[in-house]
Amino acid sequence: MSLMQIIIDRARCIGSGDCVVAAPSLFDQGDDGVAVVVSLPDTAELADLAREAIENCPSGALAAEAEVPR
């Protein structure tokens, strides 16, 4: 299984929380409201949720790097 690397552009994040709603096991919001990655997707289901969160981020602050082998 591969791990998807998730990148958050903290300067671009508007703190909408959409990523947390889409994938609460992967994302949270810090005290400043900016998104943080709390876990990397290690299953196909979680990778799909991460992709959904990335695609639906209203500010475009989320991105994924190529999946890397574990």
The helix/strand order is EHEEHE
Question: Strand order of the main beta sheet, please?
Answer: 1-4
Number of strands: 4
**Rg measurement, Å:** 11 Å
Mean pLDDT: 91
Measured between the Cα atoms of the first and last residue, the distance is 6 Å
**DSSP helix fraction:** 25-40%
Number of helices: 2
Largest sheet: 2 strands, antiparallel
Shape by Cα distribution: globular
Q: What low-confidence regions span 5 or more consecutive residues with pLDDT below 50?
A: none
Percentage of residues in strands: 25-35%
What structural category arises from helix and sheet content? alpha+beta
Mind explaining what this structure looks like?
This protein is α+β, with helices and mostly antiparallel strands. It has helices at residues 18-22, 44-56, and strands at 2-8, 27-29, 35-37, 62-69. The strands form 2 sheets. A two-stranded antiparallel ribbon has the order 1-4. Strand 2 and strand 3 form a beta hairpin. The model has no long low-confidence stretch (mean pLDDT 91).
